[in-house]
Amino acid sequence: MNLVRAASLALLCIPLFGHFAAGQAAAPDAALAAAVGAAQQQYATGFALSSQLYNGPEYIDYARPYHQRTGHQFFGEPTRQPGSVFYNGHNFPNLQLAYDVVRDQVVVTPPRSPLSLRFVNENVGSFSLNNHRFVRLVADSANSRVIQTGYYEVLLDSTVQVLARRSKRMQERVVQQGVDVEFVSQDELFIKKAGIYYPASRKSTALRVFADRGKEMQDYAKAQKLSFKKAQFEASLVQLARYYSGLTTR
Q1: 179, 66 Cβ separation under 8 angstroms
Q2: Per the confidence metrics, is the pTM higher than 0.90?
């Protein structure tokens, strides 16, 4: 149940419990007092959690002023999608989210609100969006040359991980009526093996990560007729990494 709705229902129950209590004996009064206390606690907890969730700044749709837009700044669909977020140490399910991949911001629309808010990135551990799972990685001195701090989609989570950095760039064009904009995707793929991140932009770089099982991986890619052209690269990389994970767990 939505946290705000649950808290509201709990609060509404309190006067009903009080009215019921007026004609009861002492023993039921004790049980009633406990129930009212529990309802109050539920309301307080729900209110506190909601305050933690909806505490980010307002999200302004910066694409709206353009004369004409080709594409949009969001991952997947431009509308809000079902999702969840691990935020401020708590898991919040049943949300309406969007992921702005130009600015690397997660957007939430509170219930019955015309406004959208963006989460404070530093407080987000992970989030899911329409069955796509994202984690926030923080670059350090060991991996800053390969990855940058931000959100990454987890495509495979096994003995090795395959991660995708989803992003878009904006291409503006001045026209007589104003300024047009096009949103162009530019995804990057990475493999995490033994705690180390590797870029995986080509077949050769991916196979180099799996060099300890080089011949088996080459044979598998050939037998499965894996294509590493742009359109099939991501799916083939995940399949190859999944096979490697299977080999290393035998």
Answers
A1: yes
A2: no
